[in-house]
């Protein structure tokens, strides 16, 4: 018969006595074999976490467990070693991850199909200090136990987070193939993984530059009347383009393709190159469409040429980059681009140039966003809209088992790059729903932001 552990709390944290283990009900991976636990611990030695398929008892101890399990011990051997055990047998015993005996410290441990990653700090998937790969992984572990050795261990702010595929890929970047043979290099699988990592890192608005995917407007340019596709919501939030033509065509007389390409490249990628001899033409075109940051940069370079009494070289190129003044550490849409976030939010609020209606079963129409914006943030949406699925040629999408408010919160993040929550009693529940929703739709940065806010809230409490 399973015994329920009586949780002994001192202040606001859980104290686990020597040779015992706590099994809080909420410490359970959403998916077997895949999850992350973040926590703060206070101990002289042996902060011990156990990962099992089933919940253990109060007097459970990993040394007496014959069932499949993983054990991670921080501060083993009197706070000198890091240990990982598989089914009671030591597989890792190295120096590192020392504990602080005078204050709580933050740690996280993730497991993904046998890849065990350990990090320090409040934010999961950052500051990795050690990784080990089980070549015969236990993909059934789901429950997390908080244990100890011969001294009391204090735990607080313990939370289990879902481990997204993108988080897993980022963790693989840090894997060292020199872990004493624990990590087996398989050439074919490694190349496939690197390709996937590269594709993910490079995903962004630049993928839609002059692409017919999701385009709803096109330029006709040059003597050859070359069609160049674009997207109304992107153009409208970057300048003032004539987008009211019923046939969705903008005819540009006297403009060459290289000049238009440089303008669009600046908008879609945040940077471009152009021949010095075409710089004035780019400035004129940018001024016509009021892409003012590019106009200013062109003017400054032309003025510099005049000051130096220098002639334009027809064969040399000039580099132009959007000045990214965002405090964000990541370059994600709409940061680092010539996109007016205020205008973008207006387009979202008004539904102008929207090409999809989002319905939630039981909740009716919840939003009229833009397919390209959803696709920039979410690979599932991108595949839905571009891979020939029913939604590719439809302006109606129906979602099931989704919170309307959480979905609207996720859309708000997609258009602003920021999490905006009202400070109410329901904000915590809303944040958890957005965390799960970002996992479901692969919105990696929203998932990370939700994790950070949740951990900060737990620390404040």
What does this structure look like?
The protein is 31% helix and 25% strand. A hairpin with a 7-residue loop joins β10 and β11. The longest helix is centred in the C-terminal third of the chain and has 17 residues, at 444-460. α5 (257-269) packs across α6, α9 (371-377) crosses α10 and α11 (404-416) crosses α12 (427-441). The two termini are 35 Å apart. It folds into 3 domains: 14-161, Jelly Rolls (Sandwich), CATH 2.60.120.200; 207-321, Potassium Channel Kv1.1, Chain A; 354-459, Potassium Channel Kv1.1, Chain A. The protein is built from 13 helices and 21 strands. By secondary structure, it is α+β, with helices and mostly antiparallel strands.
Observed structural traits:
7-stranded antiparallel sheet, elongated, 461 residues, 3 domains, 21 strands, alpha+beta, Potassium Channel Kv1.1, Chain A, Jelly Rolls
């Amino acid at each position: 018969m399973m015994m329920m552990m009586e949780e002994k709390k001192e202040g606001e944290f859980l104290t686990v006595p020597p040779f015992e283990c706590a099994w809080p009900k909420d410490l359970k991976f959403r998916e077997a074999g895949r999850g992350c636990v973040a926590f703060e611990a206070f101990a002289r030695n042996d902060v011990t976490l156990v990962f099992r398929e089933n919940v253990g008892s109060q007097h459970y101890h990993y040394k007496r467990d014959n069932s499949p399990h993983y054990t991670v011990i921080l501060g083993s051997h009197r706070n000198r070693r890091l240990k990982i055990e598989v089914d009671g047998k030591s597989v890792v015993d190295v120096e590192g991850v020392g504990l602080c005996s005078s204050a709580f410290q933050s740690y996280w441990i993730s497991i993904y199909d046998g890849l065990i990653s350990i990090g320090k700090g409040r934010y999961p998937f950052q500051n990795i200090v050690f990784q080990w790969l089980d070549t015969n992984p236990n993909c059934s572990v789901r429950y997390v136990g908080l244990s100890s050795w011969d001294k009391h261990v204090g735990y607080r702010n313990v939370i289990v987070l879902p481990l997204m595929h993108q988080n897993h890929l980022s963790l693989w970047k840090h894997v060292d193939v020199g872990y004493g043979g624990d990590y087996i290099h398989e050439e074919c699988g490694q190349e496939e993984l690197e390709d996937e990592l590269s594709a993910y890192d490079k995903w962004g608005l630049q993928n839609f530059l002059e692409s017919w995917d999701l385009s709803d407007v096109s330029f006709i340019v040059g003597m050859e009347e070359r069609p160049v596709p674009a997207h109304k919501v992107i153009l409208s939030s970057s300048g003032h383009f004539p987008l009211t033509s019923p046939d969705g065509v903008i005819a540009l007389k006297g403009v060459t393709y290289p000049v238009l390409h440089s303008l669009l490249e600046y908008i879609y990628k945040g940077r471009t190159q152009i021949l010095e001899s075409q710089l004035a033409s780019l400035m004129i075109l940018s001024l016509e469409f009021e892409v003012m940051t590019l106009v200013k940069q062109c003017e400054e370079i032309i003025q510099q040429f005049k000051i130096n009494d220098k002639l334009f070289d027809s064969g040399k190129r000039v580099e132009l980059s959007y000045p990214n003044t965002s405090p964000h550490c990541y370059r994600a849409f709409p940061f680092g681009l010539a996109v007016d976030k205020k205008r973008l939010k207006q387009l979202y609020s008004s539904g102008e140039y929207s090409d999809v209606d989002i319905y939630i079963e039981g909740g009716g129409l919840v939003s009229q966003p833009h397919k390209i914006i959803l696709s920039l943030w979410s690979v599932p949406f991108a595949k839905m809209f571009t891979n020939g699925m029913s939604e590719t040629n439809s302006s109606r999408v129906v979602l099931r088992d989704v919170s309307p408010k959480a979905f609207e919160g996720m859309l708000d993040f997609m258009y602003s790059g920021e999490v905006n929550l009202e400070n109410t009693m329901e904000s915590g529940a809303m944040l958890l729903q957005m965390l799960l929703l970002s996992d479901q739709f692969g919105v990696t940065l929203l998932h990370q932001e939700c994790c950070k806010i949740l951990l900060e809230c737990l620390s404040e409490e």
